[in-house]
Amino acid sequence: MRLRWTTGASRGRPIAFQIIEASTNYEPEWQIVANNIPDRTTFVDNEDKRMVQVSGLNPGTSYRFRVRAVNDFGLGDASWPSVVYRTPSAPPQKSPSHVGGGGGSVGVLTITWKPLDSGEQAVPVGVATDVMCDGYNGSALEVTWIKVPNIREVMKGQVLGYQINYWMDGEEDPLIRFIRYPGQVESGLIIGLFSDTNYWTNVQVYNSAGLGPPTPINYPTEVFVHSHGPNSVRVTWRGIVTTRVGEMALAGYRIRVCGITENIYCNNYYDFDRVSEGIVDNLEKDKIYKLRVLGYSEGGDGKMSEVVYFTLGGTVQFDPKTAEILAHAICLTMSSVLLYLSTLLSLCCL
């Protein structure tokens, strides 16, 4: 990148050298990118104008620059920072270092390496959001997501497509497979799956330099409520993939429970270890409840699952968008339901 600037006051001695410093969106601290440049090599047409070409910068990176002058008395103050300039995107210029191996079992070789810093990769930093997965048929799943904006700040280039990664649940060392869909798309199919099998999925956007970070799975999914006792239910869920909530280690799971007309943040919750089910008790008959499951740590609560509505009999189907529940509404009892059903049967037999 070619930089131009106007020289400052020499303060009694001629300027001998110029020093170029830069900061990036990955490393905001100022670092020297060109050192001890002889001042005479930076002259341009005007006596007070200077120019230098800085090489060795990382592709697809936003830079700010500033200049320091050196004379016989020492190093001068830094100039005001420049505006932000971005280098063109390109494949990584540096290969991974500290490549090693060893260990593993018979027939398996473990390879290790030090990954490149973010500024050296030129890969996307954007992440697809709101990833959802739904059954398509007995051996296929449909995955949908909100697309990553096709802008340089997050893509460091152009969107080439999206990669869906998937693997079977419950395996200690899962085999992760993937399928790619080119273009700025927002859905894709995974085919050839085993029926009646749970799978994990995530999505990555990619450009010409490689893959961006995978979408995180950081809230519990597949939350179900089952009948358990006269005043309790059993709640099951699929836990989060990560073992961290924010910056702290995952401590366990929390179930927030309240009546259907109450605020979910009411002070009524149950804490559990890092398990996939728990018992919620002290419930009342003929009352509809709602709950949400979340992971928590010493740093606080994580993201909550979707709302699940239930009674002592288990999960119930309820859509608040199409049904109106009033706080003073009369509860529908089981005896009234049976009476209504028996009346219908009697009418059918007439």
UniProtKB/TrEMBL annotation:
Pfam families: fn3
Entry-linked InterPro entries: FN3_dom, FN3_sf, Ig-like_fold, Striated_Muscle_Regulatory
PROSITE patterns listed in its UniProt record: FN3
SMART domains, alphabetized: FN3
Gene3D superfamilies in UniProt: Immunoglobulins (2.60.40.10)
Top-level taxon in the UniProt lineage: Eukaryota
Entry protein name: Fibronectin type-III domain-containing protein
Organism, scientific name: Acanthosepion pharaonis (Pharaoh cuttlefish)
Organism taxonomic ancestry: Eukaryota, Metazoa, Spiralia, Lophotrochozoa, Mollusca
